Amino acid sequence: MLISNNNNHKATAPAVEKPLQFQLFIPLLSLLICSFITFASQVTIAPQIVKSASNISAVAKSAVAEHGQLSIKDGQLVNQQKQEISLAGPSLYWSNNGWAGEDFYQKNVINNISQQWQASIVRAAMGADFKGSYLTHPEDNLKRVERVIEAAVENGLYIIVDWHSHHAENHTKKAIEFFQHIARKYGHLPNIIYEIYNEPLQETDWHSVIKPYSLKVISAIRAIDSDNVILIGSQSWSQDVDISAKDPITGFSNLAYTLHFYAGTHKDELRAKAQVALDAGLALFVSEWGSVSADGTGDVDYQETEKWLAFMRKNQLSHCSWSLSKKEEGASIFKPSASTSGPWSDKDFTKNGLYLKEIIQNWG
């Protein structure tokens, strides 16, 4: 608005006398306005979280919406209706600072594997060994894990929180502190699955080392979270499940044992060990597997992988494939040129990655 500098019209304007009622109304109106401002300044209005229609639709159709609280019954993973289920998804790589997997611990990655791949589960392999791990950089690694937990919850995925170590018994106190923190913060959610020992070494004895460690960590978790599934590692890189089956952990519910395999290395002999454990009533969960060799190298062994897939389908075993990484090795899902957040096209995947994505998409 333009303001005129001409004051002549002001001088000639006639004075207008205001009625008495109007003179009384002005102070009353001012009082009401001041009172309202004082009241409004004391009121906090909660922010509204607006979700897109597509996100609401995705969560409504999610694995957790469908299956709810998981448990173990008669050696099988079952949903809240006590129906046997088999979940499928990828595993993240070691979370260590400066390694090949840390950049994939982000929300967009979880969004994409949920919405593009139709994954029902993801595994957060939190490094608890070597440089840059939770042992040396706890805040960095914990932040990454919590970021993907919250993204998994938002997408309705189950998530394995994995103490990714080959020497967990050397850091029992730290493992307990970590899992108790996770249990306190997220244990009320049905999405959470605890994996308390990634891969004990071949010489790490089940009876005298792995089992006592596991009992301590399980007890610590169960003091806070009474029902979410706990996965237990077995001797020889989580392969000697037949040994665990002869002396299983008792006194707790909803326990399963991890079976790890790499199709280029592990064949009929390991499937036979797994069958012994299953026949003994042990619940198995394939929390890590690959289509290549056990050292992460080599080409995809399609023939042997198909045998393993048939074995997992027959026995209703849930599984996470290794790994969401663009490290230059056969086990990586992505090429080195791929984005770390997606979305991805077929040109971003390795041959292994395309195969694993297809398996996950068609598992349900």
Layout of secondary structure:
Blueprint: H1 8-12, H2 20-41, H3 53-60, H4 63-67, E1 71-73, E2 76-78, E3 88-92, H5 107-115, E4 121-127, H6 138-155, E5 158-164, H7 172-186, E6 192-195, H8 206-222, E7 230-232, H9 235-238, H10 241-246, E8 255-262, H11 268-279, E9 284-290, H12 302-314, E10 319-324, H13 351-361
Parallel strand pairs: 3-10, 4-5, 5-6, 6-7, 7-8, 8-9, 9-10
Antiparallel strand pairs: 1-2
Task: Write a brief caption for the model.
By secondary structure, this protein is an alpha/beta fold. The chain is built from 13 helices and 10 strands. Helix 7 links the parallel strand 5 and strand 6.
Provide an overview of this structure:
The protein has 364 residues and is an alpha/beta fold. It has a single domain, classed as Glycosidases (TIM Barrel). Helix content is 40%, strand content 15%. The chain contains 13 helices and 10 strands. The strands form 2 sheets. It has an 8-stranded parallel β-sheet. Strand 1 and strand 2 form a beta hairpin. Helix 7 runs parallel beside helix 8. The termini are far apart. 42% of the residues are buried. The N terminus is likely disordered.
